[in-house]
TrEMBL record:
The keyword Membrane applies. Residues 1-46 are annotated as: Disordered. It is found in: Endoplasmic reticulum membrane. It is a multi-pass membrane protein. It comes from Acer negundo. This is Reticulon-like protein.
Amino acid sequence: MTEHQHEESPVESMVEKTADRDLIHNSSSSSSDSDEDKKSSSLPSSSVSESIKSKVFRLFGREKPVHKVLGGGKPADVFLWRNKKISGGVLGGATAAWVLFELLQYHLLTLVCHCLIAALAVLFLWSNATTFINKSPPRIPEVHIPEEPVLQVAAALRIEINRALVVLRDIASGKDLKKFLSVIAGLWVLSIVGSWCNFLTLFYIAFVLLHTVPVIYEKYEDQVDSFSEKAWAEIKKQYAVFDVKVLSKIPRGLLKGKKKE
């Protein structure tokens, strides 16, 4: 019995040593993992999210969600189809107006006059008929345009018009050649599109695009941003070539002389 115990003791000691080594290794690895977890958890989540966002390319340098870019509120809800019934109704009404005025060649002034004639005739006949049938006359509501929304719209339009005038003044002063060329190209493209269709059709196309492009972009945001990143890199490359071959050869001595004076 004693010899058998002496024979098994070295084996048991080896098993115990290996078990102790495994325990030490596991404890050290778990401590290192816990240290890494603490380090990662010690980093603020805002910095991590900001670093991730900084690496992602967004179209037009956008930092806010699409809903915020469109102004938020009810107009953005309509453009992004948050309520399908309201968005469909608005788009359907715009389509009906475009078909009525563009395809059927019905004029706005004629439509307004015909609607007023029909409404006044119905109300006039109804008011006179109530005396014969002994019923109360129709209650015509008093309609007043509130002052505050009109002032808000006028103020918003004034701010946007002043911004546009400032931008046009900066472009005309010759300070930024790149902005000048981009505005000229945009106006030229707009003039070509305007020669294809009238203002009503152009307005309707822009209205339909507002109801389709933002919601499609919001749905396929990552794919569009990755494609736009490649396209923007190619545009920068082509602009650099254009700058070297054309823009750099334009004499700018007169402009520098004016700035020194």
